[in-house]
Design brief:
Helix content is about 45%, strand content about 10%. It has 3 helices and 4 strands; from the N terminus they run αααββββ. The strands form 2 sheets. It has a two-stranded antiparallel sheet. Keywords: Membrane, Transmembrane, Transmembrane helix.
Length: about 160
């Protein structure tokens, strides 16, 4: 009977997760409020349920102060590791393929400007290593009507992207 109840609880948790995920698409604007209720629930459990038990078990001179300072140190450590300064543009931070794609327009003025510049739009995911000083291969038709090899007309060696 206990195994059956545990299995039913596990199935209910999975079904609730699937239902919540599908409902998220319909009520995306309610997400901040749901997160607020969730955070408040965790704070309630911590402050009302766990902290009094922690303080009740603290006996001896300064034990309660040490217990509160230990909790405060844990909060500070969490804020330092995951807090407001958490930057998403650091090496090793990999997004799922295709998760967030940016469009960049790069305009290049070449030494022999023909009255135009070359604009290139590049889409790349955050996980890709990219360089904003692109060396692009361009086929240019000059006034003499001849096509020149990529970037050789500029005196540069053609570099692979």
């Amino acid at each position: 009977r206990a195994v059956l109840l545990c299995a039913m609880t596990a199935v209910a948790a999975v079904l609730g997760g699937v239902a919540g995920l599908s409902a998220l698409h319909w009520a995306e604007e309610l997400l901040p409020y749901a997160l607020m209720v969730s955070a408040a629930s965790f704070l309630f459990i911590t402050l009302y349920g766990l902290l009094p038990e922690l303080l009740e078990g603290a006996h001896g001179r300064g034990a309660k102060t040490r217990a509160v300072l230990s909790v405060a140190a844990g909060v500070i450590l969490s804020l330092v590791l995951l807090g407001p300064g958490h930057d998403h543009d650091h090496p090793g931070h990999v997004h799922a393929p295709g998760a967030a794609v940016e469009m960049h327009d790069h305009a290049h003025d070449h030494e022999h400007d023909h009255g135009h510049d070359h604009a290139h739009a590049h889409a790349h995911a955050h996980a890709e290593d990219h360089d904003h000083d692109h060396d692009h291969d361009h086929d240019h038709e000059h006034e003499d009507g001849q096509e020149h090899a990529p970037d050789e007309a500029h005196g540069n060696e053609a570099k692979p992207d």
